Amino acid sequence: MSSNNSNQNKDNLLIDLKNPDWRIRANAIYGLKNMVDSKVKLALIDMLNDENEYVWLATVKALKNFKEKKLADSLIYRLENSNNDEIRWNAAYYLGEIGNNKSLDVLHKSLEDESLDVRLNAAKALGKIGDKKSLDFLVKSLNDKEPIVRKEAISSINLISPNKPISELKKSLQDKDERVRSLAAILIGKTKTEEAFDELLETLKDENHIVRLSTVYALDKIGGKKIIDPLVTALKDPNWEVRLDAVDALGKIPTDEAMDPLIETLKDENHFVRRSAVNALKNYKNLKR
Fold first, then answer.
1. N or C end of the chain: smaller count of CB under 10 Å?
2. Residue 189: which residues within 8 A CB-CB, separation 6 or more?
């Protein structure tokens, strides 16, 4: 397209921003989002005042990479005042995308919004913004009635403060939802702390094999001789994936206590576990018996 044709197209789209049909205005915004010069940018910022919420949302998507102050102000206003759940959760989401600390107060309040999607995206946004002022609010969200929100709160807590608060993650190991328990175990493992060791021993007995798998991962990350007995126990787990990961973890820490159990694992019914045991035992060849 020639420069003249491109400019003409841009001018036509700018005219369409004033069209009384909201669908034409929204389409014009989508057409302009890759043509953002100063004139287009000013026109799009003006569209943040559009009364139609879907035109507003199209404008936000077009402006999201520019971190304009007026964009943050508009997102905060819509999150506080819109009755439309979709608009509120999108406002929370994009506040996280642009990373504006001015939005912390409204995002903290939104963790108690009646809409699941708003609470979920508020928790996610706070993790992206990464301000430690949000920790106490996210800890409260670990009691949210919806497990997906509790899970997102754990993820955001980890993003903001990877090594704290372990006490809250320990509580989440007892969450009634297996996804939350699993994530809590994984994140505790990433801290490489022994503070939650006793709680992880209990989680190794969890009824859900994904949680047990996550617990083996956590023990592997924590390391040290304390993890040997629990991992040897996990070699008898009914789920082959748990047994497999336990074998791999024991292969990294050759000890007399684990050698015989690993040799016994060479008879495991699952061929992946047996093959992993062979590889693990290669690291045991220098042990003196």
1. C
2. 214, 217, 218, 219, 220, 221, 222
pLDDT at res. 285? 78
The pLDDT tens digits of the residues spanning 158-186 come to 888 876 667 778 889 999 999 999 999 99
Q: Contact at 8 Å (CB) between 130 and 103?
A: no
**Class of the domain covering 1-64:** mainly alpha
pLDDT at 194: 87
Structural domain spans, the chain: 1-64, 67-141, 223-289
Residues near 285 by Cβ (< 8 Å), separated by ≥ 6?
A: none
Q: In this structure, are residues 47 and 27 in contact, taking their beta carbons and an 8 Å threshold?
A: no
The CATH class given to the 67-141 domain equals: mainly alpha
Task: Say if CB 270 and CB 243 are below 8 A apart.
Answer: yes
Alpha-carbon distances of 277 from 107, 236, 244, rounded to whole Å: 49, 13, 8
Write the pLDDT tens digit of every residue in 124-152.
999 999 999 999 999 999 999 999 999 99
